[in-house]
Amino acid sequence: MSEGKISVAKENGITTITFFHPQSNSMPGKLLFELAEAIKSSGDDKDVKVIILKSEGEKAFCAGASFDELVSIENIEQGKKFFSGFAAVINAMRKAPKFVIARVQGKAVGGGVGIASAADYTLAHESASVKLSELAVGIGPFVVGPAVERKIGKSAFSALTINATAWQDAVWAKQCGLYAEVFSSINALDSAVDSLAKTLAASNPDAMKELKKIFWRGTEDWDQLLAERAEMSGKLVLSEFTRNAIAKFKAGVR
Please, how many CA atoms are within 13 Å of residue 18, restricted to the half-sphere of its CB? Predict the structure, then answer.
């Protein structure tokens, strides 16, 4: 449990994939690749009509990649593998021939914003603020960038990237298109997720499959693109500047 877990539950054509990590649902590489495989398997399952993606707990939806793992990177190979985790999840969501609904119950940081962006339909609680904090530690949101930019546009993505220490609230995220709907209570959020999932589970799977292809048209090169972005980040994390920035971050210096 200390390393986190991925849970999968299937009922009436709806698969719910839940991720958890005790450190604000931050995601180490092992957990990310397990999550990507769970999404791929659900997408390949002919009995699954729709996928719900959520995290455990009432606070953070996802605090991004594991910071403990980030500071342990010693070479480019390790760096690329580390940053390839969120690439794997995003590409699994992109290629799954089923709609992915994301339930965002709390704050999303870095890779968490990427997951929320890669979902086909994202519903959130009003506490679900977002932040792309990568530049603050000397790197950038290179891997999640294509998914975030696709969802909210270049202008909002640039603002979120440049102002890396500032939170943007759920209202901002909805206005930019990241969230389709925002709710004032968790009960209302869960009811909306359940209702939409049941409606989609009763819809024509072939029609949804073809619609998903249309929605994601133009992203066919993302396997290669995100791999290149992961390598870019892997190199940057080894730089003296980034090492110093991470050390200041660990010491609580902003």
Answer: 11
The secondary structure of 180-237 as a DSSP string is: SEEESSHHHHHHHHHHHHHHHHTS-HHHHHHHHHHHTTT-TTHHHHHHHHHHHHHHHT
Structure tokens at 164: 């890396």
Render pLDDT for 177-198 as a digit per residue (tens, 0 to 9). Answer: 999 999 999 999 999 999 999 9
DSSP annotation string for 90-121: HHHHHH-SSEEEEEE-S-EETHHHHHHHHSSE
Q: What distance in Å separates the CA atoms of residue 176 and residue 170, rounded to the nearest whole number?
A: 10
Instruction: Give the range among 24-38, 58-72, 211-225 with minimum mean pLDDT.
Output: 58-72
Q: 118 and 90 in contact (C-beta within 8 Å)? A: yes
pLDDT of 252 reads 60
Q: Using CA atoms, how far apart are residues 188 and 191, in angstroms rounded to an integer?
A: 5
Mean pLDDT of 107-114: 97
Residue-range domains of the chain with CATH: 5-201 (3.90.226.10)
pTM of the model: 0.95
Integer CA distances (angstroms), 212 to 12, 16, 166, 222, in order: 21, 19, 33, 15
